[in-house]
Design goal:
Blueprint (H helix, E strand, L loop, with lengths): L15 H12 L2 H13 L3 H29 L3 H12 L7 H32 L8 H13 L1 H20 L6 H24 L4 H9 L8 H14 L6 H6 L8 H29 L10 H11 L4 H35 L3 H22 L13 H28 L2 H8 L4 H26 L4
Helix pairs in contact: 1-8, 1-12, 1-14, 2-10, 2-12, 3-4, 3-9, 3-10, 3-12, 3-16, 3-18, 4-5, 5-7, 5-14, 5-15, 5-16, 6-13, 7-14, 7-15, 8-12, 8-14, 9-12, 10-16, 10-18, 12-13, 13-14, 14-15, 16-18
The structure holds phenylalanine.
């Protein structure tokens, strides 16, 4: 079955730019600005950064191409796209597992993403009310501790974030997304550069750079490698169908390779700038690089608190971070919502309501992980940490292996070559080798090594 001439029933992007913007909006989010710095700090810096960049370049880019390609050819929600593609290629219907696991991963990730998104809303108000002025590192830690320590405040902001996300999803992802990404993402980068400028004045800029870029493998473990790999998938929105569903709205003529490289480069730049801005502030204020999820909420306020116009810029920063989080969160639920529309015959509004409700309920576990359940640990991890490990370090990499295997082995070269439509034969051969052999083997080695298999 090949329905290549028909657009997806959910619509189509108006142009190449619209797709690039939407995919960049999905990729650039809390992962770049909140998560990347703190997991870098927890894993000792430079070696982790190096391994992450390597994973983005050699595994992330080919996999993004594969996901867009499968989406564009399948033109349905990931579950049904995989069903259709399995039928088309004459392989087992078990491949639809990719769609199910991805759809579930999206809901699980959004459940905690929404809580952190809620933090950014809370911090807009802290910034606007002048709570950052002259803040010390210690003061910032107290502010954050009090903020996450109150379960009701946490539930409140988590609820607001979910409501806004689902109301955008209910109206269809393409309305408004393009504008948000075209103007607001560059604005966010400008404000990150402002923080970077401040970081240069702290006297610890070189120390920050050394932490990020002078290779030091002494803190790098098997788990660090898996975390870096998992983050490469997370930050590019890979392994769970978000890019696949956005790919399904891509018109036939667009070049998949060039677009994927552009998105990966933009995404990595944002993360590296965030890292360079944050660590000098960490060192200058005697904060802990391994502080964990609180890291940017303790450093960014200090930066704006010591800057002329800091109240305004600080407020703007968290508003823009919130928008970056929204454009990612809507892609996290898009697989689940389109699945309910296609398989349960629901309207988009209804599908958004039910997915939103379930995700919100799950998110309560994360809101409590920072207060009433902070000490409840199973196998040394809180509810939030388990959810993060399960999704980023297991579900996304395993989803990625399966996508690579399907694109590399189940799909014929004839079909993938035609879909990718690359100008260069060498480029295609390289992609095919990476996706067929290198990606599945490399990801399996990192996974098995981290679980202690060797
Ligand atoms: N890439 C997003 C970020 O970095 C998170 C995300 C993961 C979005 C998976 C969609 C799918 O914040």
């Amino acid at each position: 079955m090949n329905n290549n001439d028909q657009p997806s029933i959910h619509g189509q992007w108006s142009s190449r730019l619209a797709f690039v913007m939407a995919a960049t909006g999905s990729a650039v989010g809390l992962g770049n600005i909140w998560k990347f710095p703190y997991i870098t700090g927890e894993n000792g810096g430079s070696a982790f950064v190096l391994f992450y960049v390597l994973c983005v370049a050699t595994l992330g880019i080919p996999l993004m191409m594969a996901e867009v390609m499968l989406g564009r050819r399948g033109k349905r929600t990931p579950i049904n796209a995989m069903r259709a593609l399995a039928a088309e290629t004459g392989t087992s219907q078990h491949w639809q597992f990719i769609g199910w696991s991805g759809t579930l991963a999206g809901v699980l990730i959004l459940s905690y993403y929404s809580v952190i998104g809620g933090w950014t809303i809370g911090y807009i108000f802290h910034a606007a009310n002048g709570h950052f002025s002259d803040l010390s590192g210690k003061g910032a830690s107290t502010l954050f501790g009090d903020f996450v320590g109150d379960p009701w405040v946490q539930i409140g902001w988590h609820t607001v974030f979910m409501l806004i996300t689902m109301s955008i999803v209910a109206r269809g992802v393409r309305h408004g997304l393009e504008k948000a990404v075209t103007y607001l993402m560059p604005a966010l980068v400008v404000l990150l550069l402002v923080v970077l400028g401040y970081a240069m004045t702290t006297g610890y800029f070189m120390k920050g750079l050394a932490f990020l870029f002078t290779p030091d493998f002494s803190h790098f473990s098997g788990t660090s490698a898996l975390t870096a790999l998992g983050h490469a998938f997370f930050t590019l929105s890979l392994g769970m169908g978000a890019i696949m569903i956005y790919g399904s709205y891509v018109p036939q003529k667009i070049s998949i390779a060039g677009t994927s490289v552009a998105i990966a480069v933009a995404d990595t730049m944002v993360a590296l700038i965030a890292g360079m801005a944050i660590f000098p502030i960490v060192f200058a204020n005697a904060l802990e690089p391994g502080a964990g999820p609180s890291l940017i909420f303790e450093t960014i306020p200090v930066a704006f608190g010591h800057m002329a116009g800091g109240t305004l810029f600080g407020t703007l920063f968290f508003v823009l971070l919130l928008i970056a989080a929204w454009t990612s969160s809507i892609s996290l639920v898009e697989p689940a919502v389109t699945m309910m529309i296609e398989n349960l015959n629901m309207t988009r509004h209804r599908a958004a309501f039910w997915t939103g409700l379930v995700t919100w309920l799950l998110g309560l576990g994360t809101t409590f992980s920072f207060n009433v359940w902070a000490d409840v640990e199973v196998l040394g991890l809180t509810f939030f940490e388990h959810l993060d490990f399960l999704t980023s370090n297991l579900m996304l990499p395993i989803g990625g292996i399966c996508i690579a295997l399907f694109a590399g082995w189940a799909m014929s070269k004839h079909v993938s070559r035609a879909e990718l439509n690359m100008n260069s034969d060498v480029g295609y051969a390289l992609w095919h080798a990476l996706i067929r052999v290198i990606a599945p083997i490399a990801v399996s080695i990192v996974l098995l090594h981290a679980v202690g298999a060797f």
